[in-house]
Amino acid sequence: QRDCYSYHALNDQWNTLPPMPTARRSHSSIYHNHNLYVVGCYDGSPLNSVEALDMRNLQWNHLPPLPREVSSAYLAIVLDNLFVLGGFCGCWVTDVYEFDSTQQTWRQRSPMPERCEEGAAVSFNDHVYIVGGEDRSCMRFNPRNNTW
Fold first, then answer.
1. Are strands 81-85 and 35-42 parallel, antiparallel or unpaired?
2. Count of domains in the chain?
3. Closest among 26, 33, 144 to 74, alpha carbons compared
4. Are 128 and 116 in contact, with CB atoms under 8 Å apart?
5. Neighbours of 78 (CB within 10 A)
6. Which of 12, 82, 92, 126 is most buried, taking the most CB atoms under 10 A from its CB?
């Protein structure tokens, strides 16, 4: 599907947004600085596409693709950079990538110490936390020194 919607809690209303350029399922998304980032997906096989909807002008932008295909990845923002952690690519992976929003480039970071299937990610105090999953794990990543 390419459908995209926004929800306004104050008036309890869904609004239709411009359709995504790439049809997606099992993708990941995160909102930061007026942009809705949509990363990876599964379309018979994982994809590496990354797109961002600028919510100020409702225009989709293609960003440089991820270095590898992935679906169901965890996303977090630290210091204005986008982190893509883990996900599925034929099997659950531990890869970590950082998108430098200023340079518009990707770089690989230290992998997660273990796989985390069906968990969640959150950023707090310039760290990324991966929690839950089938193994009920809890991991913390420090992007400043690239350590878990």
1. unpaired
2. 1
3. 26
4. no
5. 18
6. 82
